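Table S2 (text version). Query chain:
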Amino acid sequence: MRGFTWTRLLHVVVWTCTWWTARAQGNQGEPETMPTNGTQRLGIVGPGESHLYVLQVNGPSDVTVVVEPTPYTGVMGDVDLYCDRRGFGTPGPLQAAWSSDRGSGFDVVFISRNDRLAIEQGEYICAVYGYSNFPVGYTIYAEVSPETRELQVAQRAAAGRIFQECCDTEGNSNCLRWRGMGGSGFTDMCHYPSSMCDAKGNLVLLDLSREGLRCQFPMEEILQFKELHALILDVNAISGDVEEIAQGLSELHGFERLSMIRNSISGDLNSAGVCALVRSGLQSLDLQRNEIQGSIPECLVGSQRIEEIKLGSNQLTGAIPPDSAWPTYPVESRLRTLILANNQIEGQIPDAILNLPSLVFLDLSSNQLEGPLSQGFSASFLQHVTLASNRLSGSIPERLAAARLLETLNLYDNNMSGLLPTNWTSSIRKLDLGLNEISGLIPQTLADHKNLVFLWLDRNRLSGGLPGVEMETPFQSLRLFNISENELSGSIPDSYSNMGVFTLSPSLTAGQVLHNTFDVSVNRLSGEVPSFLLRFDPSRTPNINLNGNQFVCPEETNMLYLQDLDCTASGEREVSTSSDGESLETESEENGEGLSGGDIAGIVISCVVVVALLAMGVYFFMQRKKQKASVNFVDLDDSVPGHQELALP
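Corresponding structure-token output:
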């Protein structure tokens, strides 16, 4: 069997025993006391689970907690680390005084004794959170150092020069956090938030994200940090050549992570310097939203150690390296995240990408990729696939749709064709297949998926009836249902009133209320508009669009939320009432005749006359009302608003 090794089997046995031991000890709920001398502990955490650990401090101390995922069932997952003072709630993604949520590799929390939230006597509590959609093995250790840890003298001088070169260029408007700690007078980066030193005073993690640094990449100063493992300079105004930066960082022993999102880095990615950095042991490269050019080097995708490649929103060109450049069995890739979106990459997607054994997140959207997707899909840990706005063609691979852990599939704005797969994974939450050329029926099985939240199938060639018509509760978790601009027929069943779109309250995302959506416009749907679409509390009303179909006008008068519904646009007969109360049926555009020019002119003139007469009547009425008010009100306080409009009984 491909991918089987005795080492992998041993991993499974060891970690499974560890998992059951942890569960037997109650580590799923009750916190475990953590040694503070660097002793490692093993664990396995499931999706969305947290393992809690307590650390005791006795006196002023620096605290370091490190967690690193390990290969359980042969794949590297993702765990995050959250810590707080005990008694302030359980730490997690929504609440933590200190956190580390890297996408791959180790996570570290460093609590400086100088931190305003640090405690001198008591307990910290940390949570290892399982971010992946499968069980993840990990190791964790903690160190509590009563001794004062300070950055080495030469490295403190280098930190001071970085401040002078990158922070003293905009007056006092940038580097506000650094200035708040003392500015150029503060150089002990061992105690800088999100940074970390080892016991010898060597800087191993430097994070100066969002400081507003404005300078050339400070290579000379960075190279003074001899043991630097990770450099994070996101959202600054640092400029420099990517080859020169990579070449310089390759000289650092043990350097593993470079992140410089949204800066002004330029140059050719496919260069000797970048390959030198990759060969030195690089695990994570994140250079999104820069000005980097060139093609993707084969040395980068062929690395056996690289776990994250994030190069979205640059100016990359050329093709993705071919299948032969990617690691193949028995030398397997550890790549978990590949983001190349918003570039000018062309050609086909190599089959090797959808067969990477550890791949979890793939985003190749907004490029010029073409051709079919590999039908031999075997990336069993893939969770998120975004390939929108390309020129991809062919059918959706059945094995991709059925991938066990797949949560997001976005193929919007391509040339995909053929029928929709019938067997969709139960884990799918977001499915966007809009603006393609997909035909045939919407699978009935989609209506039964309890995790599906967003569904876009608009602007295709889908036909037949709506899915889930015979189900009592179709699409029970769905918040967005968009099947507009297809060729669907039939009626909207009453059971759709139980859809999540109509039963779930609007969601709150990033402080904004997102209303649910039900859009079936521009199809061939017919029958009466269901009564449940006409009775909503305004505060919970979803966005509803039924236009461009062949519905019969409802008899209900409450059309407040369907103002644009035109029941006669397709030739249906409109029901009106005569002066004597009898129903009259009139044809609407069925014979192809419209109003003549004379008819239109007569209508316009009549409307103008009626409006003028109404205006004159209102004017004379108000004058009479004012005269009456002046007689009835004597010595009223005119400063009180509205008094002039009152009248005595």
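Notes on Table S2: Residues 322 and 433 are 27 Å apart (CA to CA). The first strand starts at residue 32 and ends at 33.
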